[in-house]
Amino acid sequence: MGGERSRLLLVDGHSLAYRAFYALPVENFSTTGGQPTNLVYGFASMLANALRDERPTHVAVAFDVSRQTFRTEAFPEYKAGRARSPEGFGSQLEILDRLLEAMSIPALRVPGYEADDVIATLTTRACAEGHCDVLIITGDRDVLQLVDDDVTVLYFTRAVTELARYTPDRVQERYGLTPRQYPDFAALRGDPSDNLPGIPGIGEKTAAKWIREYGSLAALLDRADEVPGKAGEKLRAALDTVRLNRRLTELVRDVELPGGMADLAGLRRRPYDLAAFTALLDDLEFRNPSLRERLFAADPGGGRTPSAERPVVRIRGAELTPGTLEVWLARARREAPVGLVTAHTWARGTGRVTHVGLATRGGPATAFEVAALTEADARAFAGWLADPEAAKVVDDAKAVMRVSAEHGWRVAGVTGDTAMAAYLLRPGLAAYALDDLASRYLGRRPPGADDAGWAAALMVRARMALDLDESLAARLAETGMDELWRTVELPLAGLLARMERAGVNVDRGALDDLEARFAGGMREVADEAARIAGRPFNPGSTKQLQQVLFGELGLPRTKKIKSGHSTDAEALAWLTERTDHPLPRVLLRHRDLARLHMTVAGLIRELGSDGRVHTTFQQTVAATGRLTSTEPNLQVIPIRTPEGRLIRRAFVPGEGYTALLTADYSQLELRVMAHLSGDPMLLEAFSSGEDLHTTMAAQVFGVTPAAVDAGMRRRIKAMSYGLAYGLSAFGLARQLGVPVQEARPLMDAYFARFGGVRDFLDRLVARARETGYTETLLGRRRYLPALTSDQAQRRQTAERMALNAPIQGSAADLVKLAMLAVDEALRGAGLRSRLLLQVHDELVLEIAPGEEAAVRELVRDRMTGVRPLRVPLEVSVGTGGDWDAAAH
């Protein structure tokens, strides 16, 4: 050991696991496949904090094996009062083992002993070796007996967020005893959590006083006859109990441990298995960047897993000497492709590239600051970027294309995009950043600029992009999705980059008026709620709502949550059905206004200096392949309510344009279902030319189309669209507001008429269970390993995903093809009109003067002819002076 002190961190695994499980609500921490993750998330967060704060050189986690130990042999009632582990706990312990294994942290279990005994043994041996500070994380007070000058206990005081440091002085301060006296005190006190009886009528104060007065439990028991009064009588009556307690509370310090773990050398911290670690975080869908950063920062390997199969790649390179970029690029052309990464800024429709990193596989790498480029360098770089023959591998092509355009640079020749390739291979991963992908697929993470300097960091990242592309491209080819990447996703990245730069124009004055209007409406509704409740309160406060609704007004209790009873929108809607009291309806109105106000405030906040809102379209978020919109989310601008449509009226043509055009696919997902299922009745319903839902309702209910009323049509519409989302009888009942026993016969009648749909859905699940994935029309895969889970909830969730992924995913593919076709046609015809937004099945275009008629015809033609299906694609087109007026 030399003269350098070691720091050994020991964790009571079960203690931390239980606290994590109960500290975080399981409904907020589970994967899309239904696997609870609250325990693992809380455990990982606490462990990351401890590794960061305590900086141990050695670490181990100890777990209980079972309830059968030497203590239960001596006292069968030991811990007998404890409830069985809650549902979802055991399955997460298995995941916890995978997490610790990936972090190269030993997880120790010894049959017949508890985690505390393993910790006591390791502590004793570490102290015997000398030059070691031991830190123990636990929620079990028995471990306080181990505290001494070299041993500190970090004891949970609140869930998994706060730890109290117990040193000898802190134990003395808290109990008035030394750590060695603690088990004597505990034997007198008893421990309800372990089902160890105390002495009736004797509390902690008396127990501590006796130990202080007599010095030890042994001395006290030897002189028990001298203890006066009723307390003495109670002690003498419980001598056998106290002696047994003392045996059971004493921790074993000489447990025989697994080979290699008996001394400090076996517990030294080792680098993570980065590939396994990153894959697990992705599988658990841990997207919180703070947690991921803390966990990765704790890797003692510095982001590199030693591996004989995966040697560390060393690159040659240096920061670019001004005036030499043209020569470097000329040589790089002979060694294509070139890895390209950028450091850049982007916000509200504008940004700049600040630094660039370039690397080749066999030759040198370079990096440069854009501001330092000479005129000749900049010219050479722009020419190379625009050259379609100069192959480039990029990390997030859309972002690079978008910000490069701010410099007047066009990016062509992209043959690889690490983020998009990884997304296609594993949709639904928690992160597609280069760091995470390199960890998952290469077993190493690139250094940060703070560690290596900006130039070295960028060069390494550029080389990692190349290495990743080599690995990911092979996998894409194996799955048959390389064509999807080349013909859809990569061209779409370029189109989305242009759409994001263009943005959509808004009337700022109209937005300001709406913000004031909705804020005023919220105040009025809050005043009305106060009048009804008989006192003012904050309608946005869950705690105050609970007090008013369930405490003061005594309304029916909604579903139980951690803080009491739910007051979310679903709970308030439930209350409106169960009671005639006006307050829940008023509160729902307040929620609606608050949502509208937040939407408008968000639009104003994200407004660019050009008076336009520049959303970001995310290609790698939705597992089904749908695009999502962020900063701001323009796909959630309300359309069904009059007040929501007021917001759409604020979206208007910009300078140099005369109108907005909207083009919307009619019943796209149902047409996809008809095509994929081939159900003859559904195909006929589409080809009849009549209202689809009316025609289908007539079939299901056995009446003529003329006899179908609004209720029948609503039921069938909910059923038809619900099937595309894996709707169950329970889900249909909730949608329709009817009992399950009424919804189930409706589903049976539907499938009796549309048996081809039923058979298709059954085949979907069966095939997905066999292959492990579903596919869309274009071959986009979604992997569903939970289809074979032994947990019913996870399996059922995966089955619903298997039902909807091909339908929703195929619809998303068709919309993407339509976007590309429309954009290509507009540019091919030399028109100035341009595509601005994609919202689900709708496209929004900005129309240049004199082009409306041509664009209407072009859009309808390209969208309906994007891909032949068994039923025709129909598109509704409308134009107007604002987004709402352009509706159709």
Could you explain the architecture of this structure?
- The chain has 888 residues and is α/β, with parallel strands linked by helices.
- It contains 35 helices and 24 strands.
- The strands form seven sheets. Strands 3-2-1-4-5-6 form a six-stranded mixed beta sheet.
- Helix 2 crosses helix 13 (289-297), helix 18 crosses helix 20 (454-479) and helix 29 (692-701) packs across helix 30.
- The radius of gyration is 33 Å and the shape is globular.
- The model is unreliable at 307-311 (pLDDT under 50).
User: Total number of helical segments?
Assistant: 35
Secondary structure: helix percent: 40-55%
Structural class: alpha/beta
Provide the residue-averaged pLDDT.
89
Overall 3D shape: globular
Distance between the termini: 78 Å
Q: What strand order characterises the main sheet?
A: 3-2-1-4-5-6
Taken as a percent bin, the fraction of beta residues is 5-15%
Describe the structure using short key phrases:
888 residues, alpha/beta, 6-stranded mixed β-sheet, 24 strands
Spell out the blueprint of helices and strands.
Elements: E1 6-12, H1 13-23, H2 38-54, E2 58-62, H3 70-74, H4 89-102, E3 107-108, H5 115-129, E4 132-138, E5 151-158, E6 162-166, H6 168-175, H7 182-189, H8 204-214, H9 217-222, H10 229-237, H11 239-249, H12 274-283, H13 289-297, E7 317-319, H14 325-333, E8 338-347, E9 350-359, E10 365-369, H15 375-386, E11 392-394, H16 397-404, E12 414-417, H17 418-425, H18 434-442, H19 449-452, H20 454-479, H21 482-502, E13 504-505, H22 508-533, H23 542-552, E14 560-561, E15 564-565, H24 569-578, H25 583-605, E16 612-613, E17 616-618, E18 628-630, H26 642-648, E19 659-665, H27 668-677, H28 680-687, H29 692-701, H30 710-723, H31 729-736, H32 740-753, H33 755-771, E20 773-775, E21 781-783, H34 792-828, E22 834-839, E23 842-847, H35 852-864, E24 875-880
Parallel strand pairs: 1-2, 1-4, 2-3, 4-5, 7-10, 8-11, 11-12
Antiparallel strand pairs: 5-6, 8-9, 9-10, 13-16, 14-15, 17-18, 19-23, 19-24, 20-21, 22-23
